[in-house]
Amino acid sequence: MPSAPAITSSSAPSVASPPAPSIVSAPVVSPTGPAVSGGAPGAGDGPSAADLLAFVQRTAADRALVATLPLDPEGRTWIRLDGPLGSEAWLIGWPPGTGTGWHDHGGSRGAFATASGELVEQSLATQIPTEGWKTLELADGVDRERRLGDGRGRAFGPHHVHQVLNTSPDAHAVSVHAYYPPLPLMRRYSRNGPVLRLEEIEHPGEW
Questions:
Q1: Per DSSP, which regions of the chain are E strands?
Q2: DSSP labels for 171-200?
């Protein structure tokens, strides 16, 4: 099991927020297909990561739905979807060369799948503390990278830190994402070699 990162500093720089991507929004859309099995929304622990993965892969295969997403050559676009059992879901378009930057999901578990094109996920194979630090030095060997083409997806737990990129020089990618509980916040990080720095915390309404 990879070792945990070491805390090297508790001070944070003053950093300007990155420019917001261009956004195209639309009414909430209900994907077609059978519902994910499980209890009522809000009951128990909600959908599992496996449930969310099944949902995003099924939704990514819905070509009619994917075709409704407007694509913008300058920035990411998205449509909010009805996720299973009270989860939050999104259909997202990625112009060539765009990405999320490093972030976590505020304690929510999730999954995503590529509907068209290819996405690259870079992630950390270690659990980092969520509070009490501004700068961490990551241990060797914690970096992971996956390439997810059409129909491929992955699920993750509540402590997942990653960035997602469309590295193609000329092709859009489209993907489906789902989270449970609905995202309470997102922590955004910068990365310089082994040093991970907390830059800002975003709340619903800021994305």
A1: 6-9, 77-82, 88-94, 102-103, 109-116, 119-124, 135-137, 143-148, 153-156, 162-165, 173-180, 186-192, 195-202
A2: --EEEEEEEESPPS-EEEEEEETTEEEEEE
Token pair, residue 157, equals: 């737990």
The Cα–Cα gap between 102 and 187 comes to: 9
CA 101-55-124 angle, to 5 degrees, is 30
Confidence of residue 5 (pLDDT cuts 50, 70, 90): very low
* CA dist., res. 53 & res. 176, Å (int): 10
pTM for the model stands at: 0.80
Q: CA quadruple 172, 74, 97, 186: dihedral positive or negative?
A: negative
97: number of CA atoms within 13 Å, CB side?
Answer: 6
